[in-house]
């Protein structure tokens, strides 16, 4: 069984994000970019499936600027076998919308015919949480979102989902789209010998036109603002005062 | 001229830094406070380092290393160098290059167990009476019935307590030269437990807590002829051909720690407020930051250039001396100023600055003092004009 893992190049989670002066978005010039952490978890899971003998090949795909090649090399250095880069823009500030990404992925899925697509549940830049679900709808495949445990059993996958207030275990028919959550696994370090080997692994470069997909935007960003700064706290003199404030001012007890 | 890093080099930096921050930093304070690196902790981190392919990555591919070019290797050293020395040296060991000088049997017996993480090597040159002037060594070996018999004392021998064996340099004779008699040196492998070989606890010192040094004593210690590394009387030649880049290794580990200290100082200057504004807005602080960044960059470029020349085969002793000298002195300056910017807090061991400052001190002494490096640089200048 082949496993397809889409990976997105996003602003590194350690970077202190700055909003551009014109409010059109976040400043991405000269900031550290990395693989979306949820996608990293998906890559790790795919490699583990291969190590268990469940998967035969792990293919990673990224859609975005040509620098996303670095993100793909990272996935190859972790242990993926092959990569596809779909160069959809040359502007680092252009975000390809979930529907366009899902359509491109649907086209890749038709070509590659994977048994399962493992996606991050969302990308940490825009937090849309939409691509996996849209992809399942476009393909008419089953979907299991927010996975914290995955077991492939014959032509089915048993997936434990992180839902509000607990865990839910479902069984989905393969082929399926599974989106992964934080607690599924801990991604490995790309090992030094594998980093050196990653260069020799195949990386195909495509464009949206190759798949006949229109990626023109359907959404427009009205405004981007920084979250309001946290207000300074107050010191209370006694437990009684604390209780009174919690009751009367905060209204939490 | 290309100053950029390749995709692989960037990944090497990222993966090594992630490992250092996640697996080494959390243990630093314990090692610093107790001065002890427990064996069970070594084993735990070592297993992770082996899994990540970081262990012994300085070695060529054919013996199980990562086969890195010199710059890539030094970038890896720089990231490791950010952490407490005992932790990175012991748990993510880089066996000495000199082990590659061994014959097939010696490689199997000494090099491979070091690469597999089963033991560690140590190098014994320095003596109480022979530091920078190594040829002045008194410890000696004499041939006797097909064996060699070793006598004398070595000190300041790093991590000899952990090592399973030592590579020991001994005087084995003297030759006449136009400048007077010169000692001939031979390198020997000596296994721990060889009768007549004792490892004694060394000195407690200011830098690198948890990283020990020992005193090695040889009292009619007999080793077979097959334990000679390289050729008899050619110990210096072996050391010179295989240990050339260790000064660049020192430079790189210093750059890593200086970068860490600078990052702490910058963050603090942006966050700390006094007299109603960020202290980084005061010129007294901002100019310090600028000078720290400037000096650090200069040191880094010197090291990178020497690394590049090393791979081209055009590096000189002076190039490596310049890189080592600059990086170690910059570390001392950056660490000192980072503490100054932090004020009293910089001296507390909750922050890594006080130890980076202490650790900086040894770097200007070991692997050739700053004065020896200056001597090497000037000797190269003078020789070019017949001096």
Automatic annotation (TrEMBL), chain A:
<keyword id="KW-0813">Transport</keyword>
<dbReference type="InterPro" id="IPR014729">
    <property type="entry name" value="Rossmann-like_a/b/a_fold"/>
</dbReference>
<dbReference type="InterPro" id="IPR014730">
    <property type="entry name" value="ETF_a/b_N"/>
</dbReference>
<dbReference type="InterPro" id="IPR012255">
    <property type="entry name" value="ETF_b"/>
</dbReference>
<protein>
    <recommendedName>
        <fullName>Electron transfer flavoprotein subunit beta</fullName>
    </recommendedName>
</protein>
<dbReference type="InterPro" id="IPR033948">
    <property type="entry name" value="ETF_beta_N"/>
</dbReference>
<feature type="domain" description="Electron transfer flavoprotein alpha/beta-subunit N-terminal">
    <location>
        <begin position="23"/>
        <end position="215"/>
    </location>
</feature>
<dbReference type="Pfam" id="PF01012">
    <property type="entry name" value="ETF"/>
</dbReference>
<keyword id="KW-0249">Electron transport</keyword>
<comment type="similarity">
    <text>Belongs to the ETF beta-subunit/FixA family.</text>
</comment>
<dbReference type="InterPro" id="IPR000049">
    <property type="entry name" value="ET-Flavoprotein_bsu_CS"/>
</dbReference>
UniProtKB/TrEMBL annotation, chain B:
<dbReference type="Pfam" id="PF02771">
    <property type="entry name" value="Acyl-CoA_dh_N"/>
</dbReference>
<protein>
    <submittedName>
        <fullName>Acyl-CoA dehydrogenase</fullName>
    </submittedName>
</protein>
<dbReference type="InterPro" id="IPR036250">
    <property type="entry name" value="AcylCo_DH-like_C"/>
</dbReference>
<keyword id="KW-0274">FAD</keyword>
<comment type="similarity">
    <text>Belongs to the acyl-CoA dehydrogenase family.</text>
</comment>
<feature type="domain" description="Acyl-CoA oxidase/dehydrogenase middle">
    <location>
        <begin position="122"/>
        <end position="221"/>
    </location>
</feature>
<dbReference type="InterPro" id="IPR009100">
    <property type="entry name" value="AcylCoA_DH/oxidase_NM_dom_sf"/>
</dbReference>
<feature type="domain" description="Acyl-CoA dehydrogenase/oxidase C-terminal">
    <location>
        <begin position="234"/>
        <end position="381"/>
    </location>
</feature>
<keyword id="KW-0285">Flavoprotein</keyword>
<feature type="domain" description="Acyl-CoA dehydrogenase/oxidase N-terminal">
    <location>
        <begin position="6"/>
        <end position="118"/>
    </location>
</feature>
<dbReference type="InterPro" id="IPR013786">
    <property type="entry name" value="AcylCoA_DH/ox_N"/>
</dbReference>
<dbReference type="Pfam" id="PF02770">
    <property type="entry name" value="Acyl-CoA_dh_M"/>
</dbReference>
<dbReference type="InterPro" id="IPR006089">
    <property type="entry name" value="Acyl-CoA_DH_CS"/>
</dbReference>
<dbReference type="InterPro" id="IPR037069">
    <property type="entry name" value="AcylCoA_DH/ox_N_sf"/>
</dbReference>
<dbReference type="InterPro" id="IPR006091">
    <property type="entry name" value="Acyl-CoA_Oxase/DH_mid-dom"/>
</dbReference>
<keyword id="KW-0560">Oxidoreductase</keyword>
<dbReference type="InterPro" id="IPR046373">
    <property type="entry name" value="Acyl-CoA_Oxase/DH_mid-dom_sf"/>
</dbReference>
<dbReference type="Pfam" id="PF00441">
    <property type="entry name" value="Acyl-CoA_dh_1"/>
</dbReference>
<dbReference type="InterPro" id="IPR009075">
    <property type="entry name" value="AcylCo_DH/oxidase_C"/>
</dbReference>
